Amino acid sequence: MSQATTKATRHRVLIVDDEESMRLLLARILVNGLKVEVTLAGTCEQALRLAGNYAYDAILLDLLMPGIGGFEVLRDIRRASPNIATPVVIVSVLADQATKDRCMRAGANAYLVKPVERNALVATVRAQMASRSAPKTRGK
Questions:
Q1: φ and ψ at 61, to 5 degrees?
Q2: Do the beta carbons of residue 50 and residue 41 sit within 8 Å?
Q3: What is the DSSP string of 75-109?
Q4: 110 membership: H or E segment, kind and range
Q5: Residues 6+ apart with CB under 8 A from 22
Q6: Nearest residue to 40 via CA among 14, 66, 74, 68
Q7: What is the pTM of this model?
Q8: Cβ(108)–Cβ(88) under 8 Å?
Q9: Handedness of CA 124, 111, 128, 45 (dihedral sign)
Q10: Residue closest to 48 by CA, chosen among 12, 74, 21
Q11: Neighbours of 102 (CB within 10 A)
Q12: Tens digit of pLDDT for each residue in 120-139?
């Protein structure tokens, strides 16, 4: 499955959620809507291992997970990994403003509440990946 001869490479997205059905749903939406490659992680430890070894174009992260939990995964990704600047989209059942604010302070780029609407997910991930790959310009 080598695509070395093509100029454009597919974006890669890491989906982190302890519920397999949610991982598969999010993956299906993104593969169909954005034609991205997805990597799935079902535990916090697996997510950190993957994020520590590969730079993704976006990461979808659930907060309420067994083990260290999503907040700590977010902090660790932002602290030291190839994904320090990768857009992280929180996808959680927690809908309160305090949790959203806490995530944004910890380095999240966007926050979606489950059940997530297909078009909102695709639009959010597309916008986050575009903002990351957009050239940075500064006036002098």
A1: -135, 125
A2: yes
A3: HHHHHSSTTTTS-EEEEES---HHHHHHHHHHT-S
A4: strand 110-113
A5: 62, 91, 114
A6: 14
A7: 0.89
A8: yes
A9: negative
A10: 74
A11: 16
A12: 999 999 999 998 765 544 44
